[in-house]
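Example 9 (inverse folding). The structure is encoded as follows.
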């Protein structure tokens, strides 16, 4: 039988960059796939499905309310629209024509105004908001966040991500206190975070997760939090949410994935270190390469292999090395955020020990060819 790769002429991928959208994020478990298949082959009253699965997920996560959306980015846009529109029926259908006296500023720390694959500001604008930065790129205290809040503020947005500046920025707990002081909701984008309980416990009004990253569900997103605010998000199915609706299969598949996620044993950072140790040892035997264990910048229990290339020794730039590995017979993808510093990271969660050895061999072969050139 012809494989999908053969049928469409697709290149096979070794995903050493982690659960990234550009590579299809993750590979759901068999029972999640079966649930998706069941959803595809049956009919439901969609409003009933949204409400009942939301209540079920809220029960699992011990929060007031939940709703499945099409992805975390849609969760940001619909959450922003929700806190602006609230229960206003006219605004729901006329967000594009909202009068200026409707509070629509979304305040976030300047160091959180990032591009996660698309700009945070694009999602805010899509939801009818106007992005207002607080503090500086390298500093945002609770006082600086508070100073940016005005009567035009609809919500505070906090991006909990490795993409965000980590140093000298306030915590989620401190952001909750600022939001309470001003009587505005706090939206936390925690797309790739692994703890589904932490931020609602701290008091965030809306918390957004990717359904396909840590949870390993189908392409989807999850918004949880306070009942009133989640209801405002759900209302957006009649507004901007229509353009980003999630299918029945995504709703059911993510619900099953969350149920699995809460009971399955997690791979610890220590186990990741054990898995990558032979790989790092092999790399450190190559001339011009230094490899070591590093830990996730956002504080998650995730260990990665950091590879430092001595460009003067290997005969090519790190960018050229990364590109050559992407365009080989099998596409090998790293985390390349620091390639300009001669550094890449290998995320071992989605690769086998055999694939790690393939990566080592591919690097070894490239170095050998570089020396011959």
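The amino acid assigned to each position is listed next.
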């Amino acid at each position: 039988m012809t494989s999908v790769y053969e049928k469409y002429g697709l290149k096979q991928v070794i995903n050493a960059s982690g659960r990234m959208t550009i590579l299809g994020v993750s590979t759901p478990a068999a029972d999640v796939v079966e649930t998706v298949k069941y959803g595809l082959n049956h009919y439901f009253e969609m409003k009933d499905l949204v409400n009942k699965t939301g209540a079920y997920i809220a029960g699992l996560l011990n929060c007031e309310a939940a709703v499945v959306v099409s992805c975390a980015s849609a969760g940001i846009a619909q959450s922003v629209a929700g806190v602006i529109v609230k229960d206003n029926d006219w605004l729901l259908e006329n967000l594009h024509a909202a009068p200026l006296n409707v509070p629509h500023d979304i305040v976030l720390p300047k160091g959180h105004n990032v591009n996660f694959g698309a700009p945070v500001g694009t999602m805010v604008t899509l939801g009818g908001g106007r992005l207002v930065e607080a503090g500086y790129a390298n500093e945002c205290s609770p006082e600086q966040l508070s100073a940016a809040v005005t009567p035009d503020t609809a919500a505070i947005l906090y991006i909990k991500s490795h993409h965000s500046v980590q140093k000298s920025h306030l915590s989620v707990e401190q952001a909750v206190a600022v939001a309470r002081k001003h009587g505005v909701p706090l939206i936390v984008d925690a797309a790739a975070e692994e703890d589904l309980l932490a931020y609602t416990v701290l008091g965030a009004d809306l918390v957004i997760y990717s359904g396909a990253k840590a949870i390993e569900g189908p392409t989807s997103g999850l918004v949880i939090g306070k009942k009133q605010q989640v209801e405002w998000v759900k209302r957006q199915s009649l507004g901007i949410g229509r353009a980003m609706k999630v299918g029945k299969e995504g709703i059911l598949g993510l619900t099953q994935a969350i149920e699995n996620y809460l009971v399955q044993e997690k791979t610890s950072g220590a186990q990741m270190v054990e898995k990558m140790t032979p790989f790092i040892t092999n790399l450190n035997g190559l001339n011009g390469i230094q490899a070591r264990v590093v830990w996730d910048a956002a504080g998650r229990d995730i260990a990665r292999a950091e590879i430092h290339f001595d460009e003067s020794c290997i005969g090519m730039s790190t960018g050229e090395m990364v590109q050559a590995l992407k365009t080989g017979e099998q596409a090998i993808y790293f985390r390349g955020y620091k390639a300009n510093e001669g550094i890449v990271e290998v995320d071992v969660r989605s690769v086998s020990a055999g694939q790690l050895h393939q990566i080592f061999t591919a690097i070894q072969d490239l170095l050998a060819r570089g020396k011959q050139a």
